[in-house]
Records
---
Amino acid sequence: MEHLLNQAAAYDLVVFDLPALDAAGDLRASARFIDSFVLVVEAGRVSDEALSVALSATPPVWEKLVGSILNRCDPQPVFKWLPTFGR
């Protein structure tokens, strides 16, 4: 991984699709090479409690977390707040 990241240093942005938070060992091992994380969560699949437990078990990820994406969510509730969005 270190060799791969050294090659990637020439780019402004490199995105890695890493294992789920329950694979804490893999995430801890890679966290020392990664500047920041964006958490992707599938809507309705993970409870708030399970997500909190998983994040608390991976401090190297939590400390570098810069944002999150809610994937596969129903966009209709958004439209009521932003009526012209997506139309």
---
Amino acid sequence: MRDLSGHRKSLGWLYMFVHLLVLLGAGALAYATWLVALVVAHGHSTPPVTVVENPAVLGMSVFVLVLLALAIAGLSLGVALVRGRPVSKGLATLLAILALPNFPLGTVLGIYSFWYFGQEGWDADLQEA
């Protein structure tokens, strides 16, 4: 059985880097959503539509929340991998599948995750929390 501790830490740092970028993107999109909400609130629409009822603002808000949840899950998985804590293979697989279309970093993350979690003994050196 191979020693995968170096790969575990590398994958953990990659998870943290990619999901910090996702968090940054979620923040930028949240700012854009706030700007759209301001435009909607001060716009002249007939009949008047409140900000909460506007489908564009609602859709963007939901998307920001999904990105935020994805970033938090990826960051927690990355920290657990770097620290050598037990991780969920199912969560890692889900995040890898969701990352694959995000070329080039997400694709690298997804393929590396599939390779790492497909190796025999990937969880042999994990510490119990």
